Amino acid sequence: MSESPQETKGRRQVVKFSFYHVDPAWRGLPEEERERGKRALGDVVRAFSDRVQIRSYSLVGTRGDADLLLWQICDRLDDIHQLAGFINGTPMGPYLTMPYSYVAMTRPSVYVGRNEARAERMVLHPRDSKYLFVYPFVKTREWYRLPLDHRQTMMDEHIRIGRKYPSVKLNTTYSFGLDDQEFVVSFESDEPADFLDLVMELREARTSLYTLRDTPIFSCLAMSLDEALDSLARALLTFRQVRTASCTTRATKSRYSTWMESFTPSAIDVHMPTARWATALRRMAR
Ligand code: HEM
Fold this sequence. Notes:
The protein is an alpha+beta fold and 286 residues long. Helices cover 42% and strands 22% of the residues. The chain has helices at 24-27, 31-47, 77-88, 115-122, 141-145, 148-163, 192-203, 225-246, 250-261, 274-285, and strands spanning 14-22, 52-58, 68-74, 96-105, 131-139, 169-174, 183-189, 211-213, 218-222. It is globular and about 70 Å long.
C-alpha cells in the first residue's frame, strides 16, 4: 500500500495552477492604465520570487475561458494565499477572475522505487519548454481496491509507454484531500504532436480503464508575464492601428475614431471580418 508518513518525509513542495480570465473590458482601457496594471502585476510576481517560483503562460487562442496561467511552486501554502491577495490588490485585480484553480503537492511515487526517481518527484525542476499541458486527474475508487502488484503491472505498462516520448517531461503532483481532483498532471514539451500521440497511446493502456476524469485540459504557451499580458490586447491594438492608419484623410480618420469610441470597449468585436469593417468604413467616408 502507500508509504507510511515516515517514508514521505523530506522536502515537499506546494504546487498551484492559477488560471486567470481577464475581463475583456480591460483590453479597452487606455494604454497607460493597462501598462500600470501590468507593471503592478509584474512587481508583485517579482516581490514573491524569493519564495515562490512563478512561471507564466498564455492561453489566448487555446482556450475560451482562461487567458493566463501562473504556475507556482513553493514550500508553504501561505505564500500561495498571500500572492493571490496581492495580485487581486493590483489595478488589474478588478478585471481578474480565476475560473480554474488547482492546489497540489509533490510526494514520492507509489510505483517508482529507485531513490533518484523518488527525489525527482519531491522537488520539481521545470524545463524551459515552449508548451505546458495541464490536467486535473481523478481515478476510479475501484483502482484503489486492486492489489498493489496488479496496479504495479499496469503502471509499468503506463511508464513504458511514457518513456517512448522523451520530448515530453512529466510533473506529477498530488491533490488528495487538498483539492477536488486526486492529481494534477502537467507535461512540458516543445512538440504538441508528440504529446497528442502519447495521450492517444496511453488511452489503449490498461490504466486508462480506471480513469474517472481527466478534463478540463489546458494547452499553455510559455512566455514572460509581460508577453502573456500583451498577448491579450495585441490583436485589438494592431487592429485599431492598422484601421486608423488606413483612413487617408484627416476627416475620415476623425470620423472613424468617433465611431470607434461610440462602442463600449468590451463590445468592440476584434474578430469582425475585414469585409464588414471595410463596408462600415466606406459608409462613414461617404
Ligand atoms: C512523458 C510521458 C509519461 C511518463 C514518462 C509517465 C510516467 C509516469 C510515472 C513514472 C508515474 C509514477 C508516479 C509519479 O510520477 O509520481 C506516473 C504516474 C501517473 N501518470 Fe504518467 N507518465 C506519462 C504521461 C502521462 C499522461 C499523458 C497522463 C495523463 C493523461 C499521465 C497520468 C498519470 C497519473 C494520473 C499518474 C499517477 C498514478 C497514480 O499514482 O495512481 N501520465 N506516470
